[in-house]
Amino acid sequence: MSRPTGRVLTLLELLQSGGTRTVAELADRLGVEGRTVRRYVDHLIDLDVPVESVRGRYGGYRLAAGYRLPPLMFNEDEALAVLLGLVAGRRAGLTTTHRAASETASAKIRRVLPRHLARRLDTLLDTLAFTDEPGDVDTPDAEILLTVADAVRHRRPVSIRYTDRDGRRSERTLHAYGIVAHAGRWYVTGEDPRAGEDRTFRLDRIADARALPGSFEAPSGPDPAQRVLSGFATAAYRHEVTVRIHGTVEQIRARLPAGIAHLEEHELPAGQDASAERWRRVELRVERLDWLPPVLASLDRPFVIERPDELRGLVAALADRLASCARLA
């Protein structure tokens, strides 16, 4: 690479770090005169890099938004952070429908990595282990994700075509409060004005989204993430479970998080410590009961099953099996 070309790329890197750079500052960093800086800026403009000239006492040059992404200059730490973010995003399922975009982006960056950094990255990825297995997760369309995000930001109603878990299709209007990433999936939560109730939708099940005229007021109360978790805990499933557990909130939440169980809290008498151990009612809605007895046992706290009777039988059966194993020589 010739020295002028190298300096032009260095100029691009300086501008990409943000803010307005004076001609004097750029000339000092590049080791050239001010008129040479202006010539380098012209080179970038010829390459369709959107460089703006800022007038005034604190004027100089800065990057503007362009119609396409200009060449990006990463230092080693930045390149490594981007690549690891792409790996983690694919692993967590937090990508868009165009999964190949993540893979081609990784390939482009890796092709231009310095050889020593590429070797170190390969070493890291070869020795990196995850505690969970990657799931085969359906991911949302990028355009739908961006359309819904814009509706959230500007508090505009959005029309969506949705397919629920039973395959039923519907078209509805949503006042979207926020987008939430949870357990490898994207969700949008908001009010369905026709039903007058909050709803949570999986973004990968939305076939089309378009913003509508008008606006709405954001509600007070729980943030979008808490609304999604509360919705999971109170969704309609085959079994409704109510258990009273004697313990602290932390002890209970360690095994029954907010996305699984609703923890009923009552106003305490004056002077009583809210964090102390006491009887608390926990409500769950689940498709299957067989996983609950081991979870309740792992709490290692006194508990009383209020409903359903079937759960009492499963807990008793687990206790018998444990007692039988304990008696084996």
Biggest sheet, spatial arrangement of strands: 6-5-4-3-7
Shape: elongated
Largest sheet: 5 strands, antiparallel
Counting H and I runs of at least 4 residues, what is the number of helices?
Answer: 11
Number of strands: 11
SSE order in H/E notation?
HHHEEHHHHEEEEEHEHEEHEH
Radius of gyration: 28 Å
Percentage of residues in helical conformation: 40-55%
Beta percentage is: 15-25%
Write a structural description:
By secondary structure, the chain is an alpha+beta fold. Helix content is 41%, strand content 23%. It has helices spanning 3-16, 23-30, 34-46, 76-92, 99-111, 115-127, 142-154, 224-234, 249-253, 292-299, 309-327; strands spanning 51-54, 60-63, 158-163, 169-182, 185-192, 197-202, 206-211, 239-247, 261-264, 278-286, 303-307. The strands form 3 sheets. It has a 5-stranded antiparallel β-sheet. A 4-stranded antiparallel β-sheet has the order 9-10-8-11. Strands 1-2 form a two-stranded antiparallel sheet. The protein is elongated, with a radius of gyration of 28 Å. The termini are far apart.
Helix-strand layout with pairing:
Elements (H helix, E strand, L loop, with lengths): L2 H14 L6 H8 L3 H13 L4 E4 L5 E4 L12 H17 L6 H13 L3 H13 L14 H13 L3 E6 L5 E14 L2 E8 L4 E6 L3 E6 L12 H11 L4 E9 L1 H5 L7 E4 L13 E9 L5 H8 L3 E5 L1 H19 L2
Antiparallel strand pairs: 1-2, 3-4, 3-7, 4-5, 5-6, 8-10, 8-11, 9-10
Structure, briefly:
This protein is an alpha+beta fold.
